[in-house]
Design goal:
Layout lengths: L13 H50 L7 H28 L8 E4 H18 L2 E6 L6 E4 L1 H17 L5 E10 L2 E8 L6 H8 L5 E2 L2 E2 L1 H12 L3 E7 L3 E8 L13
Parallel strand pairs: 2-4
Antiparallel strand pairs: 1-3, 4-5, 5-9, 6-7, 8-9
Helix pairs in contact: 1-2, 1-3, 1-4, 1-6, 3-4, 4-6
Length: 261
Amino acid sequence: MPPLNHPAHITVPREALENELLLASEMRTLDIVHRAYAHDVRGPLNAMQLSLELLCGLLLDAEAGDPPGGAGPWQRHVSVLREELAKLNRTVQGLLDQQLPLGSVRHRFDLASLVREVAGALRGQAARQRVQITLAVQDEALLVHGLQDRIRQALLNLAVHALEGMPNAGRLAIGVSGRDETCTLYVEHSGPPLSQEALASLERLQPVACDGRPLAGLCAARLVAQSHGGELRIEAVPVGAERLGLVIRCPVPAEPASTPD
């Protein structure tokens, strides 16, 4: 299939449409990510509760004149509480980070780190669906200059769309590649590919439901790619998989030359 880069006739300003679709898709992905975070919070809370019960038992023994057995048990329980509190704090911080409003100021950021962040946010839900996530990210930074929050949400939209097509196991690869001034964020999945009806609706930027899945997220991703000088590419790959590629062209501006004193 050729790239989805043909202009579509729409009756509202393109920027306004992008904002509305991004908001709708953000709310949808937050629901999925929040369920995973809720599951992650439960484990540390249970461990903390158990450690507190054990500490209470030691305190009761101490009050009854029975030595608690030295500093070892105390230190062990306190250490567990500290570790689980740290896990809980990281989870809550991740939840708060997901709720920050989408930024509208372009700045320099690392696409490789962004891909790792998106994969990390989806690992919990993927595990519950028995979907194996693999990463294809280079070790060194891949710096670009653009709207980081919008690009992150666009990649999340692609990954969530793929996950929704694999409720009972599958494979999901998330990666990024760059050459010259062009970078491609991509998602490859083993779920069902988009139908011709869905592709036609996406071409017209119609955020309807096709194949049992809404297209608002993909429409938003397409607009984000176009606002960064790129396009959304949908291609078949070997072994019956589908590749959703977010192509962007946003090179880092050259540093201004310093003027001599």
